[in-house]
Design goal:
Strand content of chain A: 5-15%
CATH class of the largest domain in chain A: Alpha Beta
Number of helices of chain A: 5
Strand order of the largest sheet of chain B: 4-5-10-6-7
Structural class of chain A: alpha+beta
InterPro entries (chain B): CO_DH_flav_C, CO_DH_flav_C_dom_sf, Diverse_Substr_Oxidored, FAD-bd_PCMH, FAD-bd_PCMH-like_sf, FAD-bd_PCMH_sub1, FAD-bd_PCMH_sub2, Mopterin_DH_FAD-bd
CATH topology of the largest domain in chain B: Uridine Diphospho-n-acetylenolpyruvylglucosamine Reductase, domain 3
Largest sheet of chain B: 5 strands, antiparallel
CATH class of the largest domain in chain B: Alpha Beta
Largest interface: A-B, 34 and 36 residues
Shape of chain B: globular
Radius of gyration of chain B: 19 Å
Distance between the termini of chain A: 47 Å
Structural class of chain B: alpha+beta
Number of strands of chain A: 5
Order of helices and strands of chain B: EHEHEEEHHHHHHEEHEEEEEEEHH
Protein name (chain B): Carbon monoxide dehydrogenase
Organism (chain B): Methylobacterium nonmethylotrophicum
CATH topology of the largest domain in chain A: Ubiquitin-like (UB roll)
Keywords (chain B): FAD, Flavoprotein, Oxidoreductase
GO molecular function (chain B): FAD binding; oxidoreductase activity
Oligomer: heterodimer
CATH superfamily of the largest domain in chain A: Beta-grasp domain
Largest sheet of chain A: 5 strands, mixed
Number of strands of chain B: 14
CATH architecture of the largest domain in chain A: Roll
Number of domains of chain B: 3
Helix content of chain A: 25-40%
Chain lengths: 174, 279
């Protein structure tokens, strides 16, 4: 492959939430900025920009990743998913999102997109994840509103619903 | 918090990486998982002219067994190894330590060799490499060489790697019959950098303790089998020798205490496991 010049923009093609996407970016452009500024997909939030806070977490080829620690040019040919891809259709929430709403698992919502993406990726690989495992997954995110307990409760309930198990509270709006 | 400009080369072969390193030397930086390098780029602590991405090189993506060691090439992500069936039997210390490396979200991208090349003094993978007396496989366009872990880590984020060399792989000796292994660390939050991390290897004749997070590099000591007051004295001497300092995370005194406590804990745990293996 030819070397990509620092001062020019280069085309990068990948799959975004199941549809083909294309951006023209400099090599130094972070995936967060390519998603937000080039594609207008602002669901992915930018917090610390050094991989600590987790707000920008997305999935790449099915595994969670900090978009702020990913160069946009590096996702050429990859399958990228963001929070915009979680809802089954406009106006309807996914199972995980609905559980967050029921449990008040968000307040300001800044960290939420990243946490949803981490949990979505984890539960796809490990549908029988324990509360301890889910707590550890959430440990990769900072939330300054909730104190985490409602997030953990929502994750545990969503996991049970996704496995098709009955939960204590019958969800009315899932 | 945005990187300065750099050229980007998505290398298709090992030769392409080595050629770029030969030509650009310290102006070039290798990126694999990016979990150590990209934060440095974002904070502009490093401003390379060229980034060479090696994650498309298929030959660097699979661990292999070679001469009693698990050889882990530069493109192997931490998650891949953690999910390797039988890792707990093959390299038990690594299986115990890997869950403490960052978070699920960073392990899915970060590589083992990347952590070793970065050489953060509190990182778990370099600690395991030192504890197990592993090797780092370095390669340049001109030569290939293998360096003992103890010699590879020179200081804080400083290694024996020359500017034109790639950390091509690390080699971790597999479990020896009759040996026990244990790992423990103290961090404010699971996944954060360890304040102190300890790894122990114990067999019928000797005990080895490696400590991370205190000195400017992971540091190991070998002792004959000690217990009681003799072990307390050895751990105390080590705790002082490591030259702990005060910082925002912990005091030097607290660090010395962790070396004594966690050191004893992992040595006892590894000795117990070694006895079980014998019996």
């Amino acid at each position: 492959m030819p070397r990509l010049d620092a001062t020019r923009r280069h085309e990068v093609a990948f799959t975004l939430n199941g549809a083909p996407a294309r951006v023209e970016v400099e090599p130094r452009t972070l995936l967060t900025d390519a998603l937000r500024h080039v594609l207008g997909m602002t669901g992915t939030h930018v917090g610390c920009e050094h991989g600590v806070c987790g707000a920008c977490t997305i999935t790449i080829d099915g595994l969670p990743a900090r978009a702020c620690l990913t160069l946009a040019v590096a996702v050429e040919g990859s399958d990228v998913r963001t929070v915009e891809g979680l809802a089954p259709e406009p106006g309807r929430l996914g199972v995980l999102q609905a559980a967050f709403r029921r449990h008040h698992a968000l307040q300001c919502g800044f960290c939420t997109a990243g946490i949803l993406m981490s949990l979505d990726a984890y539960l796809r690989h490990r549908p029988h994840a324990t509360q301890g495992e889910l707590t550890e997954v959430i440990g990769g995110h900072l939330c300054r509103c909730t104190g985490y307990a409602p997030i953990i409760a929502a994750a545990v309930e969503a996991a049970a619903l996704l496995r098709g198990e009955p939960t204590e509270e019958t969800p009315s709006d899932a | 918090m945005k990187p300065a400009r750099f050229d980007y080369l998505r290398a298709a072969s090992l030769d392409e990486v080595l050629e770029a390193l030969t030509r650009h030397r310290d102006e070039a930086r290798i990126v694999a998982g990016g979990q150590s390098l990209v934060p440095m780029l974002n904070m502009r602590l490093t401003k390379p002219a060229l980034i060479v991405d090696l994650m498309r090189i298929e030959t660097l993506r699979s661990p292999r067994r070679e001469n009693g060691a698990l050889v882990i090439p530069a493109g192997v992500r931490q998650t891949l190894l953690l999910d390797r069936p039988g890792l707990a039997d093959e390299v038990p210390l690594l299986a115990a330590a890997l869950p403490f490396v960052g978070h699920v979200q960073t392990r899915a991208r970060g590589t083992l060799c990347g952590s070793v090349a970065h050489a953060d003094p509190s990182a778990e993978i370099p600690l395991c490499l030192v504890a197990l007396e592993g090797e780092v496989h370095l390669r340049s366009a001109k030569r290939a060489r293998r360096v003992r872990a103890d010699d590879f880590f020179v200081g804080m984020m400083v290694t024996d790697r020359a500017d034109d060399e790639l950390v091509e792989a690390i080699a971790l000796p597999v479990r020896r019959p009759g040996s026990g292994y244990a790992f423990a660390e103290m961090a404010r939050r699971h996944g954060d950098f360890a304040i102190v991390a300890c790894a122990a290897v114990v067999d019928g004749q000797r005990m080895r303790l490696a400590v991370g997070g205190v000195a400017d590099r992971p540091t190991a000591r070998d002792w004959p089998l000690l217990d009681g007051a003799a072990l307390d004295d050895a751990l105390n001497a080590l705790a002082w020798d490591l030259g702990a300092g005060d910082d925002v995370h912990a005091t030097a005194r607290y660090r010395r205490n962790l070396v004594r406590r966690l050191g004893r804990q992992v040595l006892e745990q590894a000795a117990e496991e070694a006895r079980r293996c014998h019996g």
